[in-house]
Write the structure tokens for this entry.
Amino acid sequence: MKRTSILKVAALTVSTGLLGMIATGAQAAEVRYGLWAKKGEPQYNGAVKFKEILEAESKGKYEVKIYPGNQLGTPREMLVQLAIGTTQIMASGDPGIKEIEYLALPYLMKGIGNYAAVIASPLGQKWNEKLVKQRKVRILGFLPRSPRQISTNKVINSMADMKGLKLRTPTRDYYVESITALGAKPTPMAFKEVYTALQTGVVDGQENPVETIYAQKFYEVQKAIALIDYIDKPAYVMISDAYWNKLSAADQKLFKKAQAASRKVVFDTLPKMQKDLLAKMKAAGITITRPNKAEFIAATQKVRDKLGKARWGEKDYKTVVEIGKKDF
């Protein structure tokens, strides 16, 4: 009896010690999370919420290390890291394959709920399977971002005011063709060159979300911002497929729960932040306008039709359009 009691005590001691080590993170599995957003931005705060939920509810089984500001590299570099397993999670506007990326066609999606509905549909699941096969990653969820707006050295009250303006755009065809359809002259260039190009007059303006215009101080070398919401593109939160498949069903559920909480934090805080940043830029002398979007939507219809049908085929394009115009 005495020997049995000693063994029980010993077993309890070892068990308690192991639990203590897990609770303190000594044996925690490291989860590397890379994203473009910097500290203080809503999407970074969303990643912090992901960390809090996963670590707390796994009782220290996981330790999330966040790498903001593209510290781990470009989106394509991080995709490779996920594929080979050196990074586990990333958030980016680049979802890895064009079938999914082109959901960002101008005025195609009403909001993040529409993106989620497309990905949850049979068509979206087919794309996700292609993503897994080609990139070895899968979509875990989304983080909201602000719609893309136009900043220029000219006040824009209507589409007519866009005519002839040289606007910096990313190189993707849907940016270039959208800006062309709106009457401006797109000038693709690297993001790091934009501030100097605005400052020296190489271009008259550029397009980006409000938080980017503020964070990059583009408003310092611009006169106006037109809120036209022409591309509403979320960040895709992606996870290594090999890593995902090693997780237990319970842990997969926990990762999804942490991601949902992360998304909610961003969704709840982003509108106020946009409002605050616009107020700050207005106080700095920027003119803020809200043109009637109807003519912008009509002018870019040909871009949606052309690139959408070319990317997905007429049948799938019709499916996407139907989901994109629903209210969620």
Summary: Confidence is low (pLDDT under 50) at residues 1-25.
